[in-house]
Specification:
This protein has 526 residues and is of the alpha+beta class. Among the domains are: 42 residues, no CATH class; 272 residues, no CATH class. It has 22 helices and nine strands. The strands form two sheets. The chain has a five-stranded mixed beta sheet, with helices on both faces. The longest helix is centred in the first third of the chain and has 30 residues. The two termini are 44 Å apart.
């Protein structure tokens, strides 16, 4: 009696022959490359679905239907083959597998564990693809991409729920991830922190306030909540003079690009963002720093803007780090004074800025404070100018302990928080602040966790860890591990050139039937 898998194999062989016929047909030879490629892509997806179905059928056929024993010694008898849906990258399939049951004990489908299947119907590959699209694109656009490219119809809600489920093990993953090899680290350990607002909708659990039916005058639909972004990395020292920094900062873009390429690169950069508050974010950063410590670390630097609450927390938790005020933030206050005193179109403004920046980097910030306060008292100074001069002087005065730039530059330390500024922009703002976008706290936190995994280049490693954790929760057993199947297939292909054919190859070729030319006659995709 011919098994179901043998019948499918014969059908697949015939399908493959028809694929060859499709490519070599006269119709294809008269078509454009684009039309053939589009049609072939659809046909290959359908062919992949048949191959994957064959895999499931053969695994089910290999399963014993003999009674099974549970871990506690109870006997489960085979009842029937049970069906479950499986949404693969090739489309939706029906997976049949033996079901064992005993009254009072319950039922099991052991093949689910052997195949590493999850709770829902979506394959891990589909989950990873939709997750990756979702952390970089709005959810409905991610669904559109999957539909247009693969014909998969995943709703916005499904993508959001998948991201929520797949983000649940991120903290556990980073808790067990070993620190970088000290031999690959640099000698300066750097931490950075900054906040970025995320638009949050009002929720019932937040003080009982919900979205009103109609907004009152001046009322907004939601509010912004700060996501604290942190970064930790090591970097090699790069001693510079204040004049070198000024020359680089005010030169042409092409020159600065060349200098940037020659700078030391951050090593093993790890970024994170959370809406759970500054204390939660910094407590996590403490653990990240502790894991990176060692004899290879010679110097420790903490960079942030002038947020007093953040500076205080950094000093309390990282007492052995030198806290530095981000030079770019400080320079923005100088730009504000230049615009106020000289105007934004004044030709001398750039020269004035270069001179004042050099003074600040040379350790003359106290003199700048005195100068600005004196200018503010002059009768010729307008009210707006006085306000800006006073604001800048106050900012510099409060941050003076963190503005010893000559010492920082001499040690070769970074003085600008470009890493964290870039993270606030592309990691948080570019995804969470798109036009009209509003988040609930849970949804935003889930997204930021998976986005951190992607940005830290941990995507494949994390999802393998997630599969292991899920398997342990569902089946109380280790996740099946093996070498990549594509490598094994290549090895077998090499061996088959000198050895007898496999059992699958020995199946008799399928006899052509009357629709064997349907690929030849199939219209090419528009």
């Amino acid at each position: 009696m011919t098994s179901k898998s043998q019948t499918i194999i014969q059908d697949i062989r015939q399908e493959f022959e028809m694929l060859l016929e499709f490519v070599t047909s006269q119709q294809a030879h008269q078509a454009t490359a684009d039309r053939v490629e589009r049609s072939l892509f659809k046909l290959v997806l359908a062919f992949g679905a048949k191959l994957l179905n064959l895999f499931f059928v053969m695994r089910a056929e290999d399963c014993s239907r003999e009674p099974r024993q549970t871990a506690t010694g109870q006997r489960l008898a085979y009842q029937h083959d049970s069906k479950r849906a499986y949404f693969s990258i090739f489309g939706k399939l029906a997976v049949w597998r033996p079901y064992f049951y005993q009254k009072g004990v319950g039922g099991q489908t052991p093949l689910d564990a052997e195949l590493g299947l999850g709770e829902d119907c979506y394959s891990d590959l589909v989950r990873e693809v939709s997750d990756y699209l979702g952390v970089y694109n709005v959810y409905h656009k991610s669904g559109d991409i999957l539909a247009r490219l693969l014909g998969l119809n995943l709703s916005t809600r499904v993508i959001e729920e998948t991201i929520a489920a797949d983000a649940s093990d991120v903290e556990a993953y980073y808790a067990q991830k070993p620190p970088p090899d000290p031999q690959t680290e640099a000698e300066i350990l750097v931490i950075q922190a900054d906040g970025k607002g995320v638009p949050i909708i009002y929720e019932a659990e937040e003080g009982g306030q919900t979205n009103p039916v109609r907004l009152a005058k001046g009322q907004k639909q939601g509010h912004k909540k700060e996501a604290l972004v942190t970064a930790v990395y090591t970097i090699a020292p790069q001693p510079r003079t204040p004049q070198e920094v000024v020359d680089s900062f005010f030169r042409q873009v092409q020159t600065k690009a060349k200098e940037k390429a020659a700078r030391p690169k951050p090593q093993h950069k790890h970024i994170w963002a959370t809406l759970d508050g500054k204390d939660t974010a910094l407590e996590r950063l403490v653990k990240q720093v502790a894991a990176r410590e060692g004899d290879h670390i010679q110097q420790r630097v903490a960079l942030c803007d002038g947020c007093e609450a953040l500076q205080t927390r950094l000093e309390n938790r990282f007492g052995d780090f030198t806290l530095i005020l981000d030079f770019i933030h400080a320079d923005e206050y100088l730009w504000a004074v230049a615009n106020s005193l000289l105007g934004e179109t004044q030709a001398q403004r750039l020269t004035w800025m270069a001179d004042q920046t050099l003074r600040m980097l040379s350790g003359q910030t106290a003199q700048l404070i005195t100068q600005f306060r004196q200018l503010a008292q002059e009768t010729s100074t307008s009210a707006a100018q006085r306000a800006q001069l006073t604001k800048t002087a106050n900012y510099f005065e409060r941050n003076l302990p963190y503005m010893d730039y000559p010492t920082y530059l001499q040690h070769g330390w970074p003085i600008a928080s470009g890493v964290i500024e870039g993270a606030c922009r592309h990691f948080v703002k570019d995804r969470c602040e798109l036009s009209g976008m509003r988040w609930n706290l849970t949804g935003a936190e889930n997204l930021l966790r998976l986005r951190a995994v992607a940005e830290n280049d941990d995507w494949e490693a994390y999802h393998h860890f997630r599969q292991q954790q899920r398997h342990q929760r569902l089946y109380h057993a280790p996740y099946p591990t093996q070498a990549p199947l594509e490598l094994q297939a290549l090895e077998r292909s090499t061996l088959n050139k000198t050895q007898p054919t496999s059992s699958i190859d020995q199946v008799e070729p399928a006899v052509p039937h009357n629709n064997s030319k349907r690929y030849h006659q199939l219209p090419l995709a528009a």
